[in-house]
Design a protein that fits this description.
With 104 residues, the chain is of the alpha/beta class. The protein is built from 6 helices and 3 strands; from the N terminus they run ααβαβαβαα.
């Protein structure tokens, strides 16, 4: 598991690859956010939801080292309320290239 900020910098080439994959997504609006904290919490997700609503995005990609259980629950609740999707990815998933099914 990645825990240091140094690993975040080392993973930039993988993140660039990830971003290039996003460019290949269908033309609907999407929003991406990369958080450099060890764990995303509910307030982080709330702020991202606000950005998604303001920009009228159908899908959002939130990348963090890890997520609190409250953050994951908020992502689920947001989908039920708005029918907009937040894809929660970890840096480790991107590095391990285990993201193909989440991008679909």
């Amino acid at each position: 598991m990645i825990t240091s900020q140094r690993c975040w910098i080392e993973s930039l080439s993988s993140l660039r690859d990830f971003l290039s994959c996003l460019d290949d997504l269908p033309s609907h609006k999407w929003l991406g956010y990369f958080q450099q904290k060890n764990k995303a919490g509910c307030p982080d997700i709330d702020a991202f939801e606000t950005m998604m609503m303001r920009e009228d995005c159908e899908k959002g990609f939130f990348v963090s080292f890890d997520y609190s259980s409250d953050a994951l629950q908020e992502i689920e609740s947001f989908f039920k309320r708005s029918h907009k999707v937040i894809v929660a990815l970890t840096v480790q998933e991107i590095l391990d290239e285990h993201i193909a099914k989440k991008l679909a």
